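Changelog note: in this version the structure field was regenerated for every chain. One regenerated record is shown below for reference.
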Amino acid sequence: MNITGAFYALFAFAVFATHDAVIKYLGVSYSPFQMIFFSTLFSFPLVTFMLMRDKTSGNLRPVHPWWTALRTACSTINAMAAFYAFTVLPLAQVYAILFATPLLITVLSIPVLGEKVGRHRWIAVIVGLIGVVVVLRPGATEFTLGHMAALTCAFVGGTASIIVRKVGREERTVVLMLYPMVSNFVIMGALMIFAYQPMPLADMGGIGALSLLGFTGGIFLIIAYKASEAAIVAPMQYSQIIWATLFGALFFGESIDLPTIIGAGIIIASGLYIVFRESQSGNSENTPVLRTRSRASSAASFRISPFLRRAKRED
């Protein structure tokens, strides 16, 4: 078993965690709309460089327009929700909630993909959702707009991932990439007008760093999945909670409380169990979580799944 990909993945998710810490830093001064607009603007050259290698013939009209429209809407909402959640909530708490995304992907695979989920994975999903409740502590703490944003991010991120699984083999990579980016650019540009703040050069450099970090994390995640099986790479996403705790303590004066630790532990254990069940040959032919290769919570990075599929075809 080749575990090289795990080290690439650990580095990728450390980069993504740094990306999210920069969001939190800039979010004190700027609206999510403004940050997303400029990070998308700076991402266009980087993603265009990736798309130049796409040899698939065709045009920019989607094969599945309604699914593409829904995924574009989900990606746009995901960006707003992620940037806002990272701005107003402790980093570790946001990650704990976002780690529920694989659980939601498992559930959404039933109506969207027609897959069957067995008893074991259903139990894991239920236990994981209990973990989310432990993190949120309804009744004991105030349920804020930030918590709603994190939950929304997990849901629409899971939905976008499932849609990619449904139509990704038939849609061109350029369509899957550019439609959400153009949507973010246009919609965030319009909304930014109402909350625009002039940006000094240093902060503009921070926005550029968001684009570069998202791009770099995506590249290393592609390398990780090429080097090792998905069952080795996927669990590495949970290392982000370590970086979130470290960054939160060092730069933002945050501390992780016991309920968040317990809830995150429950969610992570449930997610790992689902990965384990999907990776066991003979248990199931349906592997929606293992086939979801992109980090749904990354608002400024590109989705790596289309590039992985293309690389397999070239091999």
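Spot check on this record: The chain has one domain: 4-296. Residues 4-296 form one domain.
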